[in-house]
Write a structure and sequence with these properties.
single chain, about 140 residues, mainly alpha, 5 helices, elongated
């Protein structure tokens, strides 16, 4: 899934204008982002033909924070240049942290003792400290 130069001309208005001494064009970065989205590889796993992975990741991160990627993918879908279909979503539980209250577990409450000790029953355990040495 790569965008050609002719297709890029249709969506070029969504991307910010390149300034300064940019080593990669917006088209190259866009194709690299589409490659990662299609193949699900890590950024470090990008083929060398796309350029430095860190440069691509940095620009993608900047575009994501400023809303450029949202506008870009909306325009790509509207122009029917690409069709994105999510087939599976996977979450790694080591990354997703849930607060204990968010798991649906019942909250621990203090045990209320009744006035009659016999109704409460015997304690389930007794802890007695032991003296190791005699005074």
């Amino acid at each position: 899934m790569e965008i050609t130069e002719a297709q890029y001309q249709q969506i070029e208005s969504c991307l910010p204008r390149q300034r300064g001494n940019a080593s990669l064009s917006n088209l190259q970065v866009l194709n690299a982002i589409l490659y990662v989205a299609e193949h699900g590889c890590k950024w470090r796993g990008l083929p060398k033909r796309f350029g430095n992975w860190h440069t691509i990741y940095t620009r993608m991160n900047r575009w994501s924070r400023s809303g450029v990627l949202d506008r870009l993918f909306e325009q790509l879908q509207h122009a029917q240049l690409i069709r994105i279909r999510i087939e599976a979503v996977s979450l790694d539980s080591t990354i997703v942290k849930v607060h204990p209250d968010g798991t649906g577990a019942l909250k621990k409450t203090a045990r209320k003792l009744s006035a009659n000790r016999a109704e409460d029953g015997a304690p389930r355990f007794i802890w007695l400290p032991r003296m190791l040495e005699r005074p």
